[in-house]
């Protein structure tokens, strides 16, 4: 897979148009994140994903494990997930699912990463561009991104369904929110304070505010956390929305698969298939 360019004219991670659920987020504008895709099941948005090249989608294993390829359709170039737009939106079937070999449902948080191969190559446009992969990172460096902020995008819930005062609401317009990345030690401590037994591994990271208020939510799973390189002005996918306890709750940040711990796996599986 060519990592530096999406094609001759469409560089990976570079927006062509300038201007999950994401609880506490704001609407994007059409074409702002042209690598974000909607993975659809039975005609409806099911999970998020991100375009790696003209045939492969990166997503979370828990979104696709146990399914067969024909269950899914990938919508690219989407903005309002309800309505495909002529000339910008493309729906393509899936013909192969590659789930990480060490992912298993009894331990749904570990190695929560998968690839989908599209049935046909997609043509790039101002609304469809591949994302850049980050450089390979040390899998044992648990706090690789500590202190940075990342942007999460998705069509998931706008409110947690368990919130007694608000009825759950599903986003139709692609949402975005920027979140601080929390050290794995602090994240694990916060989980334990709340009575949760999750231990964040070196291949994962957490992002969210201690007081809550903003987060990815159900329906955002599999979608990307993005980081912008201020020198090249391009985006890379640094995380995959993996798990959360509720949405945007205090001291319960979202859990993400750390992509730079899997770049070798990604490139190897694409090359094999």
UniProtKB/TrEMBL annotation:
Keywords, comma-separated and alphabetical: Disulfide bond, Hydrolase, Protease, Serine protease
Gene3D superfamilies: Trypsin-like serine proteases
Molecular functions (GO terms): serine-type endopeptidase activity
Pfam families cross-referenced by the UniProt entry: Trypsin (PF00089)
Domain Peptidase S1 residue range list: 22-271
Matching CDD domains: Tryp_SPc (cd00190)
Protein name in the entry: Serine proteinase stubble-like protein
Native source species: Dinothrombium tinctorium
């Amino acid at each position: 897979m060519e990592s530096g360019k999406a094609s001759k004219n469409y560089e990976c991670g570079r927006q062509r148009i300038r201007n999950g659920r994401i609880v506490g987020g704001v609407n994007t504008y059409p074409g702002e994140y042209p690598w974000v895709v909607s993975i659809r099941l039975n005609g409806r948005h099911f999970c998020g994903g991100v375009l790696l090249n003209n045939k492969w989608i990166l997503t979370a294993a828990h979104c696709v494990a146990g399914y067969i390829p024909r269950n899914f359709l990938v919508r690219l170039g989407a903005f309002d997930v309800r309505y495909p737009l002529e000339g910008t939106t493309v729906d393509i079937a899936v013909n192969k699912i590659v789930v990480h070999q060490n992912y298993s449902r009894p331990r749904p948080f570990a190695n929560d990463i998968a690839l989908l191969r599209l049935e046909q190559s997609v043509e790039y446009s101002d609304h469809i561009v591949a994302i850049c992969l980050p450089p390979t990172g040390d899998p044992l460096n648990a706090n690789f991104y500590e202190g940075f902020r990342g942007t999460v995008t998705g069509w998931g819930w706008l409110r947690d369904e368990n919130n007694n005062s608000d009825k759950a609401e599903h986003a139709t317009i692609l949402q975005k929110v920027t979140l601080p990345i929390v050290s794995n030690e602090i994240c694990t401590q916060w989980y334990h304070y709340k009575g949760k037994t999750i231990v964040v591994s070196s291949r994962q990271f957490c992002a969210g505010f201690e007081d809550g208020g903003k987060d990815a939510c159900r329906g955002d799973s599999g979608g990307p956390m993005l980081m912008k390189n201020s020198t090249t002005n391009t985006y890379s996918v640094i995380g995959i929305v993996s798990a959360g306890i509720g949405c945007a709750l205090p001291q319960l940040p979202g859990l993400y698969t750390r992509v730079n711990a899997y770049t070798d796996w990604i490139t190897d599986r694409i090359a094999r298939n």
